[in-house]
Write a structure and sequence with these properties.
Largest sheet: 5 strands, mixed
Number of helices: 4
Strand content: 15-25%
Structural class: alpha/beta
Low-confidence stretches: none
Distance between the termini: 4 Å
CATH topology: Transcription Regulator spoIIAA
CATH superfamily: STAS domain
Number of strands: 5
């Protein structure tokens, strides 16, 4: 089973990332670097990161690596909105730290996936996915679980 999964929604220029279980910050940074190496343009897209089932540790060094990878891929272009969905109140501290290392994105914390997606993508809550709205399966925590 994969512990990190992403889905691209080109219509709204949004990437949704699911991070599960005990994945640590270095693994997340590796995943970001690999994903951006395949398509650097998504560094400027809006994003929704689903941490509802994440219990791993993400430290300052990993966040710094993520920032370096994002800056390299953005090449001076502006970033988008970045929503982080979590039921852990400590995620707000993590976002404040991230603002130091990942400039150019508007970072916000949410506890509701639908609200996070609507804000990040610029769509209204409940907008059909055919019009760029959140795919229905993403409302459930663990939406990206795929058997290995």
């Amino acid at each position: 089973m994969y512990k990190i999964h992403h889905k691209l929604i080109p219509l709204s220029r949004t990437i949704c990332v699911l991070i599960l279980d005990d994945v640590n910050g270095d693994v997340i940074a590796d995943y970001i670097e690999e994903t951006l190496a395949m398509n650097s343009d998504i560094a400027t897209w809006n994003s929704v990161t689903d941490l509802r089932l994440h219990v791993g540790n993400v430290g300052p060094d990993a966040i710094r690596r993520m920032g370096v990878a994002m800056a390299k891929a953005m090449r001076g272009r502006p970033g988008g909105r970045a929503a982080v969905v979590s039921h852990n109140t400590g995620v707000r501290f993590l976002l404040n730290l991230s603002r130091l290392f990942i400039p150019g994105h508007d970072l916000r914390a949410f506890s509701d996936m639908r609200a996070a997606y609507a804000w990040a993508s610029g769509q209204r809550i409940g907008c059909p996915d055919a019009e760029g709205g959140m795919p229905a399966e993403m409302a459930v925590a663990g939406w990206g679980r795929v058997a290995a």
